[in-house]
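Sample 3 of the quickstart, ligand zinc ion:
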Amino acid sequence: MPELPEVETTRRGIAPALVGHRVMAAVVRERRLRWPIASNFESSVIGQTVRAVERRAKYILIRFDTGTLILHLGMSGSLRLVKPSAALKTHDHWDLVMDSGWVLRFHDPRRFGSLHFTSDDPQCHRLLKRLAPEPLSEAFDADYLYRATRKRSVAIKQLIMNSQLVVGVGNIYASEALFRARISPRRAACRITKAEAAKLVRSIKTVLAAAVKIGGTTLRDYTNADGEPGYFRQKLFVYERAGMACRVCKTHIKQFTQGQRSTYWCAVCQR
Ligand SMILES: [Zn+2]
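Result:
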């Protein structure tokens, strides 16, 4: 599943081919995504010039003078820049044909992605208005996390993955950040100390920023279809390493299921 760093990498990858350029054509081959693509999508964007490509949580916002496209990659979606002559693949659901000579093409086998156009402030759109702070913003700091964990008996890993607390901390980054902060994923959130909250916030920011940076080094690959997500190039300490030796203490990494997600941790390093 594309996580926040992959979405940010995508945003940076596609922006140069879009910003300042006009939409010549919009082609929809499959309207049935997570929600149906509205019938006025094409007429809303054709002839419009892209002013900015932004991100909020895992949504990419493509801004025009008349409104904003709000798109989500879902479970399996990806955006590529292709030439107009590029052959179509199965599950290529929509295109924006730009006057830059590039076509922005959305591919999504599972169709959990989404595409909305709004002529209002996108931050007030129903999908965005209740979103919690960005993990890489100043609003997400030790005080904020410490206060949010008081009186919460839920496991800390589940709390930091809750998008009502902070957006975009997916399973892989939650697991890695907890290892770096030396906190067990099972620990009740209310038992996190203020110092641990500070450490965990720093760890979350570090793993996400590193993934964005790694993704950023592969931007030139964005015009072909096999760019690897940043996290595969990051040195992982626990994620998908069950049974392997901890890189710090050599104990075997453990795995268990928590909130229907696999959690990986070192019982020696994390308390
Ligand atoms: Zn260990």
